[in-house]
Amino acid sequence: MDNTFATRKTGPAPRFGPVHVWRALLVVRREQPISRDRLSRELGIGEGSVRTILSRLVDEELVAIRKKGIYLTRWGVAKLANLPVTTVPSSDLMMSSCNVAVLVPRAIGKVTDGMVQRDEAMKIGGSGATTLVYSAGRLALPKGGVDVEQKFPEVAGCLRRVFDLEEGCVVVIGSSSDEKSAEEAALAGALSLL
Question: Which residues contact 82 (CB under 8 A, 6 or more apart)?
């Protein structure tokens, strides 16, 4: 995952950010083929912004637009293979009823205490984010915090079933009252590690 789409070329300031670009790819992956109108509704941004996002994604050869709708290309599928995302059951570890986790490989050195990820999640409208680090075969809160494997086995089990956890990876769990906002919160937190 990178910030390829964060740089502006010219023109007015966009009404979307890198989170919307990554979320567009996730929505296309889940719903392909999808129309531009439906993608606009799913992202909660205008069709002009969606056209701009799609133009960039087509230029990067991540999506293709056909008569039946928008699809991921082979390159898009490969790129998203590096962005595993899953819903996570509610627990006392998270801040809201809807929780979505994103795996960020080899990012443990960029995590301090998880507050940056929480703040980025809140800036985009989420309730917050919980950052977990994977080290010595265990999921835990950063800086020697709670052992998630022991204290929250249902959360750890869910993450282990979906993610290929490797030494030094980070899991950012975005929280909100709805799944769309939780996913955006998780992506915002994850992007802060790049």
Answer: 1, 105
DSSP state of 12: S
What residue segments make up the domains of the chain, in order of their start?
Answer: 4-80, 84-191
State the chain's mean pLDDT as an integer.
91
Which residue bears the tokens 């989420």?
Answer: 126
- Tell whether the model's pLDDT for residue 2 goes beyond 70: no
The domain defined by 4-80 folds into: Arc Repressor Mutant, subunit A (1.10.10)
172 within 8 A of 129, measured Cβ to Cβ: yes
pTM: 0.86
d(CA 125, CA 178): 11
DSSP structure class, residue 34: B
Task: Name the CATH topology of 84-191.
Answer: Gyrase A; domain 2 (3.30.1360)
Q: Using one digit for the tens of pLDDT, what is the confidence trace for 138-184? A: 999 998 789 999 999 999 999 999 999 999 999 999 999 999 999 99
Biggest CA pair distance of the chain: 52
Spatial distance between the Cα atoms of 9 and 81, rounded to a whole number of angstroms: 28
